[in-house]
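Course assignment 3, question 2. Fill in each field.
Student: A.L.
Task: Predict the tertiary structure for the chain below.
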Amino acid sequence: LGLVAMLLMTACSARKPSHGGEQSTATHRSEASLATVGPAFELDEPGYGNGGSAITSIKSEGLGTSLVVWTAGGAVYGARVDAAGNVLDRFPFRISGPPLLANTLCSVSFDGTNWLVVWVGGSSVRGARVSANGVVLDPSGITIAATASAYAPAVAYNGESWLVVWASAAWKIVGARVDSQGTVLDSTPIVIVSDTLAVNHPQVASNGKDWLVVWDGHSGYYEIGDIDLALVSADGNVLTRAQFLSAQDDELNHPAVASDGTSWLVAWQDWPIDSSVSLYTARVSPTGVVLDPDGV
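Answer field:
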């Protein structure tokens, strides 16, 4: 902008008439030539910060650098931030290629070497690996599953592979494993749950061996909701499914899950019909047993 302003000022001064009210054509042309603009050149792809953008996931590489990913303008962007809070990428880099995103949610997980970023684009669940240096290793993207009804993807690494999970408009939570080379291990997605009620907001975490997948279930838009879970093994088998917590008069939703390397901690919001929102947590054992059934 500073360069543009200088050029405009130069151009305007070249056209300013003299005190006598006249300016010779030769002088005008000579001074105007100072304002000649050279050919355009590309600076970099802009990083979008407005127009519907939203930070949707952050994941540290374990060495102090985190990858922040967000969506804007139908694409996924990312930028790395070090442990001191310094942004390492002057210009955010684009992670997703075409097709455009079908929704505004994305997720990221680190395998010790690279990040895997996942999103829903067009009629498929897609992903791309990003190196610790901020290089997009799969610029054309990886098709994890072909489906026209996926939304709300999430991903976690268990030491061997990533598990990508998402919700389906067919009232299912499904997933697929992806190895560190970007190879999809499950050509047919794993059905984690198939319900007769609406399911939404899946989240996943690993204790270094298995994955715990959590989600909320609803019997209607304004009806009560519950928190459910499933334990998925490293080979993609669903070991247990359980209703985590249910309340007759409350709306329980938007769960989150994390692991300390052995057990899990699940958090969710409780929205009673006649009260304000509260936050609750509960521990889950390595075998998927809820240790705090009433929440804390």
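Instructor remarks: Confidence is low (pLDDT under 50) at residues 1-38, 41-52. The helical segments are 2-15, 25-32.
Grade: pending
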